[in-house]
Every structure is written in C-alpha cells, then in structure tokens.
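Our platform keeps sequence and structure together, in a single record for each protein. Nothing more is needed to write down the fold, since each code stands for a local backbone conformation. An entry from our holdings is shown next, in its original layout:
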Amino acid sequence: MNDTPLTQVLGERLIDARETALALNLPLYWLTHAKERRRLGLPHYRVGKLLRFKLSELIAWMEERQALRPADAALKEAADVGLQ
C-alpha cells in the first residue's frame, strides 16, 4: 500500500464549506447552494457526496473578481454617461 500523505497527492488540504466561509469571510450559502456556486463560478470539488474547497483557488478567485470590479465600474459609468 502507498503511504504517501494525502496533502502531497492533492497539493493542499481540502476544506468544507463552513471552514471556507469562516476563513474567507464569505456567506455560507454561496458555498452550499449549487445555483450560487455556478452563478459566481466558485472552484470546488465533489468527494463522493461531500463538497470541498481549496483555499488557494478561492483566494485566486477573489483576487480575480476584485481585479474585474474596477473594469465593471468603468463600464457602468460609461453606460450612465451615455444615458444622459
């Protein structure tokens, strides 16, 4: 049998929705509701019936969304100016 630790195989520890929500200060329903995960594009894993997350992937997801936010604001501002 292989005695390789699971963290070496996966690269990092997978955590559940509650631990993820606490670590990243996210609403728990974003993580537990499939419709919200799809809408937000949250990276996640199914391990059997269990739902798990990698913190590094979620941190990258959050940084990507923050980088897009100024661009979204500029588009909204341009649309508002066009309406006037």
About this structure: The helical segments are 6-10, 17-24, 28-32, 34-40, 55-83. The CA atoms of residues 72 and 78 lie 10 Å apart. The mean pLDDT is 83. The longest helix spans residues 55-83.
